[in-house]
Amino acid sequence: MKPVIALVGRPNVGKSTLFNRLTRTRDAIVADFPGLTRDRQYGDGKLGERPYTVVDTGGIGESEEGIDRPMTDQALQAVGEADVVLFLVDGRAGLTAADEQVATALRKLPKPVFLAVNKTDGLDPETAMADFYALGLTDLFPIAAAHGRGVRAMMDAVLKDFPEAEESDALPEDPDTVRVAVLGRPNVGKSTLINRILGEERVIVYDHAGTTRDSIEVPFTRQPRDGGEARDYVLIDTAGIRRRGKVHETVEKFSVIKALQAVEAAQVVVLVVDARDGITDQDLHLIGYTIEAGRALVVAVNKWDNLESDHKDWVKREVGRRLHFAPWVKVHYISALHGTGVGDLFAFVERAWDSAFIKLGSNALTRMLEDITGSHPPPRNGRFRAKLRYAHLGGSNPPTVVIHGNRTDSLPNSYQRYLENRFRELLKIEGSPIRLELKSGDNPFEGRKNTLTERQIKRKRRMMKHVKK
Question: Where does GTP 1 bind (predicted)?
Fold first, then answer.
């Protein structure tokens, strides 16, 4: 098994920078801003033949009020499940009371704790570490996480007692794993929904817009209620996306970019909507972005329990009216706080995933195409009519139907929409967009000039004389 390494320390000491360095990614948002990281962020890395898992945590030790309390709880959970703890301190700021408080708690742990004195670039290492010997931790390492200095030597010491990679550690991700991104505006209940699905406080929930900043991936296995085969999922909690004109802070801009990248990395997107507001213009923008990305989509209308019946009727009418451009989108009404309808949400997610990855042979698709064009042939364009000859499946997520024929570029948009709707109906695709790709065969005689014989030339002249008379 891979060792789990938890990165802990007070805010703004460089935990996220070291996390990105150890995982060789840019998954954690980094800025010169204390308290940026809030939820636990997991990532995998490898040093030589030794793999490991790193857990980035929020800053602890400076406050127990407001959102700092759940941030501390998240960090303590990471420490509890870790095999090794890396305690980061700021070598430039020196020893603080918060560092002493954290060290007092870590010394009681029955697991190895390593002290990393960060931000020592440009400083004498021994001078930077002098104050921190008072913490009573024997394994001290001067590092510069931003530049990678000293990180290799520290990780050699951390991993020396752990075995090298096993075959089970190198297994690729199951292709049947369903990646689900939870998207929506700020404070609509995305993190609450994920915690309800997982049955634990995995991500921080706080009554304040913008609580989630990173995109947090949480793998889990779900056993269906009917006793069927268990299925693996990866839930991606994303930051709330506001209208562009309301996004001013640089940190929030990075959070929005991470959320939109999560849509690209997902296979199914669950858009969470606040039932009190109905579907807003911003929700429609997010729906449009998801459809453009080709991802399967399920709309979850949250906070449904406490509404009056008249307001519920109004919400349903508004949802139907505003989603008229995408009638295939499935809408489910839930209450993430109380759990109402959350279990049934996965039935919609699974149907959307199955539709996005549908498999069908070329013969079956070609027969469908013949039936569609037989009942409603393509319209004429001038003297000619487009001929659609055969079809095959060109890709998944979204399912792409490639149609070959002649003069396909002359098909009007209305007929292309008709083809999409008919294929969606015949293939029983639910909750996923479908795309058509039209291809015309090349004319083998294009650009070639026919050379007439002497007899053909004389005949042409006789015919021209006849026409002139």
Answer: 9-16, 56-60, 118-121
